[in-house]
Every structure is written in structure tokens, then in C-alpha cells.
Amino acid sequence: MSVNSQTQNQNQSVTSTVEKKQAPNAFVRWMRLLFKSKTGTFGFIIVLAVILVAIFAKFLAPYDPNMINPAAMLKPPVWVEGGSAEHILGTDNLGRDMLSRIIYGSQISLLVGLSAVALAGVIGVFVGLVAGYYGGFVDNVLMRLVDSFLAIPTILFALVILSIFGPSVTTLIVVLGITNWVQYARLVRGEVLSIKEREFVKAAKSIGVRDNKIILKHLLPNVISPFIVISTLSVATTIILEASLSFLGLGIQPPTISWGGILSDGRDYIATSWWLATFPGLAITITVLAIIFLGDWLRDVLDPRSTN
């Protein structure tokens, strides 16, 4: 008994040592692959910076973003003639600090982007798994539902729903979630149609494994990689949709701050005070490009045909 227990302890120690080595090695491998790609590195750094800015906005913003200062109305950026060192990116038509508003605007843009994509992903993955696995009548019904959603322009559908229920952060997240799930459903369904014909799925069916266990333990893990890629790219699209709806006045409402709302406020002054629309536009553009670059890198890394 003592020999057996000693052997078991040795095996456990060896196993734990191997697991500890594998985790850092996996992390190092991912970092190496990331820094091999210039666009991937740029995307990762910018996305990480935006996330940190959103988290620590309270500490980074020099002023209250909604503080009105009539004495500092429409002050240009500090490097422009007439600019003030107190307001690096200038002020808006109410004297509010532009840098502070852009910093706080990152919170809503990320919140809406990530939440809407998470909601759309849950719906789309569920529909895709069920349709692809069961096929037949279930597949036909669910795919016709997908086709009906594809026939409706996303922005038009969002405008109709928001005009009926009224604009708010929660409503916007739900609307963007239920209008973007179809791409996940189509992707997951296509993957499942291929995976369910493989030997390990047929073997699980032959020994009587329940359908829900096959879906969760065999099919779902195999569709995670393409799901992560498309989700990353969808965050960029959702941020643009949120900014577009806020620009039209049906998205985030004051006093809540979003980049689209700041852009909308500055459109009436673009001829005389260019910074009001330029800086939120740059924030949206750079963030979206960074997310796209990061998504492209993820697609290359997670592609099973990749030689990395």
C-alpha cells in the first residue's frame, strides 16, 4: 500500500508539474504569435488601452464631463491659437471639457458593443446548434426565421423598435442583440452540419449519449473558435451602429455620454469648431480599426489551416 500511494503521489506531482508548464507555454506562444503580427499588436494595444480608459475613466478624466462652464465655451485645443492649457482637446458649445467627455464616452461604447454582441451570440449559437444538429423540419423553420431577419435592414429595424419603446441603454443593447444574431446562427449551423458527421459524434450517439450532452460537450467546443473571431469583428460593427443611432438622436440620451452623442452635438459647429466632431470621430475610427485588426489576427491564429 505504501508503494502504491508513493507511486500515486509521484504521478500527481508529475501531472501538476506538466500542467504548470503547459499554461505558461501556451501564454508565451500566444504572445509570440501576437507580436509577430504588426496589425495584431496594434489592435491589441489600442483595445487594451480603450478598456483601461473606460475602467479608470473616473481617475483619468480631468473634469466632470457634464460640468458646464460658460466662460470656456468653444475653446479650441491647446495647440491651436486661442487654446487653453486647461482643456487639452478644447471645449464644446457649453464649455464642457472634450477630453473628459471622450474618456467617459468609451464606457458606453464598450458596454453597448460587448453586451449586444454577447446577447446576439447566445441567441445565434443556440439557434445554430439546434438547427444544425436536428436538421429536417426544425432546421427549415429556424433557417426561414433567419432569412426573414436578413430581409430587414438592421438600421431600419433598430430605428422602428427604438421609436416605439423609446431610446435607452438597455433598449439599445436588446435591439442590437436581436438584430445581429443571424450571422452567428448561420456560421454555427454550417460548422455543426460538418462536425456532426464525424466519427466521435457518431460514436457518442451509438452508445446512447443524450442529445443535449452531445451538443454541449462535443459540438459547442468545436464552434468556439469561429464564434470568437466573428464576435470580435461584430463588436466593431455594433460600436458603429450605436454611434449612428446616437447621432440620429435615437441612441444614448443625455446626460449619458457616448461617442455618437458627442459627434451629434458637434455637427452644428463643424464649420467653425472642427474639434467638436473630429475627436469623437477619431475615437470611433481608431477603436473600430483596432478591433478589426485584432479580429483578423485571431482569425489567422484560430484557423486550423494556419501553419503557426
TrEMBL record:
Record carries keyword Signal: no
Lipid bilayer topology: Multi-pass membrane protein
Keywords: Cell membrane, Membrane, Transmembrane, Transmembrane helix, Transport
Superkingdom of origin organism: Bacteria
Transmembrane spans: 41-61, 108-135, 155-179, 219-241, 274-295
CC annotations in GO: plasma membrane
Location(s) in or outside the cell: Cell membrane
Domain ABC transmembrane type-1: from-to ranges: 106-295
UniProt entry tagged with the keyword Ligase: no
GO biological process: transmembrane transport
Main localisation: membrane
Family named by the database record: Belongs to the binding-protein-dependent transport system permease family.
Protein name (database record): Peptide ABC transporter permease
